[in-house]
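Any chance you'd type out a single protein's sequence alongside its tokenized fold?
>
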Amino acid sequence: MRQAQKRSFKNSLVIVCEGTETEYKYFEELASIVRRDQPNRFSRIKVVPTPEEKAATDARRSSYKRKMRNTTQPLFLYHVKEEKSAREYALNCAQPARYVRETQLFMIENGYSDGWAVFDKDIHTGHKRAWELAAQMPRLRIAFSSYSFEEWILCHFERNCHAYHHSLCKRQDCGIQHKGCQGRKCLIGRIREKKYIPDFVKSIERLFSNVLAKQLDIAYVNAAWLRSLNKNIIPYQQNPYTNVDELVLQLLDIQERFEWVKIGEVFEYEGCKFVLLINKGEILLAYDGTVSLVITPDRFRYCTAEGKTISPVATTNLVFTPDVNEKHVLIDKSQRYLLLEEKSGSRPRMKFIIELPFFCQ
């Protein structure tokens, strides 16, 4: 790996996208909004590759292939960055590792403090290497969607656990006037068929501003729900999956994160371990910690499926100590979801959502 440049840019961000259609246009639009509305939010934001950059790279690669028998200059191109080492290129040129490696190079050579590689599951097989590369730099992250980026778009409209295996099936008009698979096999067909975005195409313009911005709160919760389905399985082995919301939250400087918790699952709240159980029509909240902790009524509430708060679960403070480590609260059986919210602190505030079992209705 090449040596870092002496110059670096604090609070700067580079986003390397797999393609120049949906993902590039989405994040470039979002970056433009941040530059306009929060000009001091980042010292620099760069989204690559532009369509022009990709076309230039494709042309160089094509020209090189024609001349390769007569040249002594090897070509180790990603989208925009170029390797100088045949060994590094051989290790990282396969998809999707190349997107992570290019993000690394922007951080190393151009001083970006944060980097995101944005890519999908698709039919790529080299995901393990991509995750190994990302682990080498603590401020480099992967925004991954399975099966494709359209999984994140679908999250703006519904909670869907179907495992799709196509972004768009063989019919380009799938989902239009009930044609094609009608959203049974492909994500774009689903988005069109349900009339969420009837005219959706990968090259759609101003997707965020015109359609998705007003649905963001729903998307954050639904994306967190998807990740809760298989928490113990590495992301690239999951379908469906997306964590694109984490990149969007960082871009927009939103200081909250959602996490879905299953009943009986241990989770960390305010740095302490908790587990929530249901016992004879009561909520049992059990605590495992060495300090005293108070949960006020405004931080433990019933909520909607979209995470909107309704009413307090308890009318008084729940006080936990190492000696008093569990609390019982009678369930309101007309409610389906609980929201447990952390206090504001130095890190993003966590909002935990728990779905009550059907018998509580």
